[in-house]
Amino acid sequence: MIISRTSLAGGCGAAAALLLAAAVATPSQAGSFYLQEQSARAAGRAYSGEGADRGVASLWWNPAAIARSGREASFGLHGLLLRSDVQNAGSSITYPGGATLPIVGQNSASNPIESGLAPNFAVATPLGDRFAVGLSVAAPYNFTTKYSRASFARYDALTSELRTVDAGLTGAMQVTDWLDIGVGVDAQHVDAKLTSALPNLSPALPDGHSSLEGDGWDFGWNAGAQVHAGKFDIGLSYRSSIEHELDGDIAITGLLGPLAPANVDTDGTASFSTPWFATASVRYAVNDRLTLNAQVNRIGWSEFDAIRVSYPGGGDTIVQDYKDVTTGAIGFDYQVDDILTVRGGIGYDPTPTRDDERTARIPDADRWLFSAGASVKASERMTIDTGLTYVAFQDADIHSDRTFYSGTPAATTTHLRGDVSGYGVVASAAVRWAF
Known about the structure:
Elements: H1 10-23, H2 40-43, E1 72-88, E2 92-94, E3 100-102, E4 108-110, E5 116-127, E6 131-138, E7 143-146, E8 159-174, E9 179-198, E10 208-229, E11 232-239, E12 243-253, E13 264-273, E14 277-285, E15 290-299, E16 306-311, E17 314-319, E18 325-335, E19 340-349, E20 367-377, E21 382-393, E22 396-404, E23 412-434
Antiparallel strand pairs: 1-4, 1-5, 1-23, 2-3, 2-23, 5-6, 6-8, 7-8, 8-9, 9-10, 10-11, 10-12, 11-14, 12-13, 13-16, 14-15, 15-18, 16-17, 18-19, 19-20, 20-21, 21-23, 22-23
């Protein structure tokens, strides 16, 4: 995934780089491009208490969770039904010479954020009396957004696709009868694709087109601890940022007249960083049946400060300026009997995007999560977890000014203005086996 720069269209390369930046920053069920659906049990209580709970179902949040879980495996699937609406709120384009005109085309986009499925798998086994190892496979960043070729947002976004596979290897240890620790390493593969329209120098001319693709493997780490003290279970954990470098190519077509030299087909690299996560979690057993949960996550979205693009003959740094956020959730588990446990929770997840820098590729907003779920012990070795989450997105504004062909006589600026609303429903199910 890369930009190319040629003569007059040095600015065209920069414009394509800006479009690349958004390819890896489309919203999901958590803030910006993070997908937190990693456990059906967790989904049932709005992801509260995960860092302090035990077993492979909590492995994503704390590697110490498997220190006392025994031999266990879990496979989960999450179905995401998303409904969103993006409306034009006066978007315009300024051509060379200063003429500013409305961006013509479709003034609304219905459901540009596509629904989909997110799977996850984890397995753990003890090694002796005090040690355990685990393996997990997850999709923490996984989504697709699409706009029509005639959309008012086409200069920001047509198609964005991001697919990830995160394979984690974990080791955990029971240090004492009340303290567990764990560490892990992650190998994360990213595959991204972006297409968008490019403006020519007159509204009478058809749009050009940009296509960017890239992929690559990179690595991170995580560490955590759990304290088990009477009725309290307390968890602390940290998951590192991962700096990704994607290798790929770009094709720019359809630019006419003085912009024609910018039509290219080349390769190069683009780098960006995912956020770090710091989690503090507590579970309190009120009695033998009822457990209360709470969790706070500090997410280091400021790591996603820029996209850095390199290609033969040049490069670009595209500022993103995300902000760190704090999320929180509370919930409960209630064991009805030896077979059935029910749970529920509420969570709050603010967006890391800034109001004056939100693009059509990132129509992100603050959100509330309302969850309910249950676990059914189907046999001595098998438990079925389910969860249902309603995600209420607060209304948000799109506000993005972007200059194409900057630094040349062809400099053209789009002023994207829009209104965003929507909601989501997530249905989660998983099977856990003890073996």
